[in-house]
Amino acid sequence: MSVLVTGAAGFVGSHVSLALKKRGDGVVGIDNFNNYYDPSLKKARKNLLNQNSIFIVDGDINDSKLLVKLFDIARFTHVMHLAAQAGVRYAMENPGSYIHSNIAGLVTLLEVCKNSNPQPAIVWASSSSVYGLNEKVPFSESDRTDQPASLYAATKKAGEEITHTYNHIYGLSITGLRFFTVYGPWGRPDMAYFSFTRNILQGKPITVYRGKNRVDLARDFTYIDDVVKGCIGSLDTSGKSTGSGGKKRGPAPYRIFNLGNTSPVTVPMMVAMLEKHLKVKAKKNFVVMPGNGDVPFTHANISSARKEFGYKPTTDLQTGLKKFVKWYLSYYGYDQGKL
């Protein structure tokens, strides 16, 4: 297959691009290298991709002329849409960036896909955050998703509605993936496990949020290699889009899957694992969770993805964090004695 990967210099995007290339698929990436987190990490991922003969275009998914040009050159059979403004709390500082990337950018991309001949099949990153204030666990794809707790979650939920429309009207094959707290080497510095690692090594205190009544927060941490397998399984089973020239010729697949690990771990347990692998004790400040968009727990039911494409996560948090710490120490030069 020939795949356009958006957000290819991002955490999940870079890993998916490498995995596709490794098995012989054609891959072109696009990324706008924004500074929501350290752009030098994105540049380092880009260099890794370039070393593996993957070309990344420096551009924005809102640039429809650029997207049309890419489709003219490459005739993509599939699009793996992973470009997004991530992060739950940052939405309170910069709401516009979420609308720009997660809604406007998505529509721009869908418009280009809809008009392209042949239409590609699309797999894109939704989020476990769409479950919002849902209290029924584990979260299943058929559960309510109409109570988002953050603007980020609301834009991902909007994305699910928008993609449904494009599937219904234009015959685009679309698969949405609800990722559950993806972590691992080359990860995102704004994620707790990453910033905790940085602060523990620098001897700085870490802030551990607690829910109401001193209940520990828990997350269904999912290792990057498992998520990549889910992304590729989704691409391989996506079916075909049915439209041409912007017109639908018949019904096309519309699917949504949870990609999680199914074993939620509390944040203090995650911190204890990091302390073990870093061989350093953390200075912890426990704080009651402010109402800034975080939810108290996440837990995925993955039976749909297992049935549809054999999705089966194999890495537990202890093993995955060990791999992350090894990468972190190497990437930031700790294993050369530099602090």
UniProtKB/TrEMBL annotation:
GO terms for cellular component: Golgi cisterna membrane. Residues 3-237 form the NAD-dependent epimerase/dehydratase domain. The keyword Kinase does not apply. GO terms for molecular function: UDP-glucuronate 4-epimerase activity. The keyword Membrane applies. It is an enzyme of class 5 (isomerase). InterPro entries: Epimerase_deHydtase, NAD(P)-bd_dom_sf. It catalyses: UDP-alpha-D-glucuronate = UDP-alpha-D-galacturonate. It is a multi-pass membrane protein. Its main location: Golgi. Its EC number is 5.1.3.6. It is found in: Golgi apparatus, Golgi stack membrane. Keywords: Isomerase, Membrane, NAD, Transmembrane, Transmembrane helix. It holds the Pfam family Epimerase. Homodimer. Belongs to the NAD(P)-dependent epimerase/dehydratase family. This is UDP-glucuronate 4-epimerase. It comes from Solanum verrucosum.
